[in-house]
């Protein structure tokens, strides 16, 4: 696996961090979650930018968004009490299939 892919995966995970911190910031009324949001967002975007220099645009963006969406949904279900219905889990599996497909079919 190339460095660009490692950075892309880490950037996708950081998307989960910033999305979760954004929710925790209370519309930017809480300092530490707001700072975590800003830092994770900047690092996530920088990593995505780096990865796009080595991985095709559609593949890099699709994988980044997919990792962030899956991570954020799983966090919501595990930590925030979002419903974990069979339909939601099936939809997450479809996103996983799409992300894996983008990675292999570039």
From TrEMBL:
Gene Ontology molecular function: transmembrane transporter activity
Keyword Chaperone in record: no
Organism in which the protein naturally occurs: Streptomyces abyssalis
Entry's Gene Ontology cellular component terms: plasma membrane
Annotated Pfam families: Multi_Drug_Res
Keyword check for Transport: yes
InterPro entries reported for this sequence: EmrE-like, Small_drug/metabolite_transptr, Small_multidrug_res
Protein name: Ligand-binding protein SH3
Keywords: Cell membrane, Membrane, Transmembrane, Transmembrane helix, Transport
Principal location: membrane
